[in-house]
């Protein structure tokens, strides 16, 4: 039976449901957390601290977190993390009920939720290839479904639900998110157990973290995959920083119209995730990644030149489609070619590089808009994406991608020949 007609295993359905419910809870908190902070203060710096606290774990512990995930049982890491996040949310819920909620408390909660997200996301990314037997076609199908429902849950349903729940009381969205984490933990707990990666020689955690980072830097395909979100985040954050101002001053639209622009972008993301596997089959994964990167750059260029909301909405939808397809193809390729014992570290290294790059986009955008014009950051973002497309096109070419897949398959066959069936050994 070929990969194209294989069915996704039953365990994937439980993992998919768990991540969808968790993403819905994340969407609720994405809207509710800043609104909760807004009930306590109008100080922009205090609000920024709460928002930034959620991203700090990736910057501070990205490499070490990946090394820990590679040491731990991945299924257990996921369900324990979600159970801990469910318990954590009881603290601000109780504080809100007792009228003891504060900005420092919200910042600590945001940080710890982000830390939990680091461990859960890294472990889930590392667990999926084992669950699907590292089959490239199954990985693309699975990631397309995960990406699509994540966008729908956290981008469409979650934020308005968070706003509506907050209107019922300050504790309601916190408790709703806690329930989503608890449900996710129960589902993940029921997933099939997978054997841990073969333990490496006794090394310090820092040395293992460096090994994961150097593995990415030495591999042309993985380096190309890491550069895309790094440059992409600079460009996209630069765009998002001035998007509201651009929409108001240049397009003449208000708050409701701006919300529709964001909806157009999310809709494009769903479409892109849906056609990612088709693009990968028709063009080859490497060529498809190059095309989606070029589409993103050209779409932002179209946004910069847009003179009315309709053209701008179309440009954002096309950009979203490019991002959606990329977010399916790139992780699927990484999961297919990275050895199991390095998956956590490679995943966290790539994610950390992207997260570290994002603040530069905000600073660059603010400076360009102040010094020149609100369109300048958009032109710059488009230029960065198009240059990145050219630079990485040879790094992730079809030839390199196919060679990496064949090398991974040979390694897996050699490992399988040298050791007994790991699933049977684990069952014993």
Uncertain residue segments? 1-5, 419-428
Strand segment tally? 0
Radius of gyration: 22 Å
Number of helices: 17
Largest sheet: none
Assigned CATH class of the largest domain: Mainly Alpha
At CATH level 3, the topology of the largest domain is Growth Hormone, Chain: A
How far do the termini sit from each other? 28 Å
At the fourth level of CATH, the homologous superfamily of the largest domain is MFS general substrate transporter like domains
The percent range for helix content is: over 70%
Outline the structure in words:
The chain has 428 residues and is an all-alpha fold. The protein has two domains: 8-191, MFS general substrate transporter like domains (Growth Hormone, Chain: A, Up-down Bundle), CATH 1.20.1250; 204-428, MFS general substrate transporter like domains (Growth Hormone, Chain: A). It has helices at 10-38, 44-53, 56-71, 74-88, 90-97, 103-131, 136-168, 172-189, 205-218, 220-249, 255-283, 285-305, 309-337, 343-371, 376-393, 398-418, 422-427. Helix 3 (56-71) runs antiparallel to helix 14 (343-371) and helix 10 runs antiparallel to helix 15. The longest helix is centred in the middle third of the chain and has 33 residues, at 136-168. The two termini are 28 Å apart. The model is unreliable at 1-5 and 419-428 (pLDDT under 50). It is found in: Cell membrane.
Annotate the secondary structure layout:
Blueprint: H1 10-38, H2 44-53, H3 56-71, H4 74-88, H5 90-97, H6 103-131, H7 136-168, H8 172-189, H9 205-218, H10 220-249, H11 255-283, H12 285-305, H13 309-337, H14 343-371, H15 376-393, H16 398-418, H17 422-427
Helix pairs in contact: 1-2, 1-6, 1-7, 1-8, 2-6, 3-6, 3-9, 3-14, 4-6, 4-8, 6-14, 7-11, 7-13, 9-10, 9-14, 10-14, 10-15, 11-12, 11-13, 12-13, 12-15
